Amino acid sequence: MTKKQFKKVLLAYSGGLDTSVIIPWLKENYGDCEVIGMTGNVGQEEDWAAVEEKAHNSGASKLYIEDLRQEFIEDYIFPAMQAGAKYEGTYLLGTAYARPLIAKRMVEIAHQEGCDAIAHGCTGKGNDQVRFELGIREFDPSMPIIAPWREWDLKSREDEFKYAEAHNIPLPITRETNYSKDENLWHLSHEGLDLEDPSKQPSYEKILELGVSPKQAPDESAYVTIDFEQGIPVALDGQKLSALELVESLNELGGKYGIGILDIVENRLVGMKSRGVYETPGGTILYHAHQKLEQIVLDRDTMHYKQQVALKYAELVYNGLWFSPLRQALQAFVDQTQVNMTGQVKLELYKGNIIDAGVTSPYSLYSEELATFDEDDIYAQDDAEGFIKLFGLPQSARAMKEQTWKGQK
């Protein structure tokens, strides 16, 4: 079947193996179309001049390098952190947060450049193809999307290496070190190679980049104090910081003490299980501190319901539905829960562990006078007898009926 031809294609470009190969492949298979690259700077460590040079050398006519870091933290990471969103109870969704933002900016650039298609380098097995494409369709549902991994004859990373070598495309990686990675301000993921066997323990000394394993962390602990205003972290150890500065500082501190290393087998949206190692040092500290503050500020019913909301919120984000009406509706609920989420949390970091060291808030619902085991004047303990009888009335009524039925047999 003859492919539809395009004049100008915008490619989500990272400079890695996949997208380096995709530029010449697009030109070969889509009528020598012009290829423009777009890279979202969401906090990954890159030599941006080298990335741009590599894109041009691979055949791109130009490369947009968009600094999205502040928007990434303030409009995506922090709202989800306020929600307490963790996919399957553990994964802090580092990759999933970045994709809708990048997709949104890609559509804007595609319109600006007059592109008649958008391409990405996501595989047909992964979640990111869904996240990118749903994000693109949110802002331009009629935009054609090219996904080479679902079209080309290259079936493996080895095929990509051979293609790159045949087309003289320089690569920053080798066959031996080709973990599939995704890095941003929030995390760094590692997948592939020996990690595909969940029976094997990861070699943290070999793969970790944002920090060290707990074994290599200092023997002395470190304390950190985080100030929140309406659920948003604003200061470390009393020093006001921008969102970017705060996350970067906690990444450095958490990495030093082996915080935030996750070895997980997760359920991908497409149906398979996938094993990976994620580094989220600063994010793990922030989630823990925020949850600790909620323990003293939120009332019981709101807190318990919010925990249910967090599971659904995380599932939506993981599945690429950031822009969905349901995610936005859940965010409205979360925002209301954060109105009084102001206070200070002190934590001790020690060899991969986060140890609670104190929490205060002007909106705390905790009452030492009520909770004390010592004598108090505001709680009559004998009132509990009537409460238990009323609370247990359905159980008592059922038990009496069951005894009657047994007696009739």
From TrEMBL:
It is found in: Cytoplasm. The keyword Disulfide bond does not apply. Pathway: Amino-acid biosynthesis; L-arginine biosynthesis; L-arginine from L-ornithine and carbamoyl phosphate: step 2/3. L-citrulline binds at residues 91, 127, 131, 180, 189, 266, 278. GO terms for molecular function: argininosuccinate synthase activity; ATP binding. ATP binds at residues 12-20, 121. InterPro entries: Arginosuc_syn_C, Arginosuc_syn_N, Arginosuc_synth, Arginosuc_synth_CS, Arginosuc_synth_type_1_subfam, AS_cat/multimer_dom_body, Rossmann-like_a/b/a_fold. Transmembrane segments: none annotated. SUPFAM superfamilies: Adenine nucleotide alpha hydrolases-like, Argininosuccinate synthetase, C-terminal domain. GO terms for biological process: argininosuccinate metabolic process; L-arginine biosynthetic process; urea cycle. It is an enzyme of class 6 (ligase). Its EC number is 6.3.4.5. L-aspartate binds at residues 123, 127-128. Homotetramer. Belongs to the argininosuccinate synthase family. Type 1 subfamily. This is Argininosuccinate synthase.
